[in-house]
Amino acid sequence: MPGSAHEPASPPAYVRLGGAADTDVVARMFFELWPEGPLAEHREDAALILAGAPPSTLPLVVFVAEARGVVVGFIEVGLRSHADGCDTRRPVGFIEGWYVEPSRRGSGVGRALMRAAEEWTRSQGCRELASDTWIDHESSQRAHEALGFEVVDRCVNFKKVLQ
Predict the structure, then answer these.
(1) pTM of the predicted model, to two decimals?
(2) To pair with 76 at 20 to 30 A between CA atoms, which of 9, 51, 66, 96?
């Protein structure tokens, strides 16, 4: 019987490296995650990353999660020269964006995406993976902590326009 102690339940989603055919759906999800930017700009960014030519000097990839042939989430992971709380002598993997369709949250899709990001980060020679989220985004904080991340800093950023 599926899901019993004798036979594992099927995975919540199939995770794979995103490709050019995923541009539109990934751009839409970028927009859902970062609504302050225009959809057209997100589409340009997604197209570059998914084509293997990210607008950065360090590697950056997007993994997508598919359930029944439909993309239901993504994780964008890259390398950074440093990240708060990490060893400053080594590059670090960094979760740039992580999104799961609201109807699929809590089903293991986010965990499957994070596992792919961790494997990719290890393959790049990194020993640490970092991420960030908004201070008022409690569900994201809980998701990170549930997957073994620890808070290393809290910060409030300021800006003053000079005239």
Answers:
(1) 0.86
(2) 9
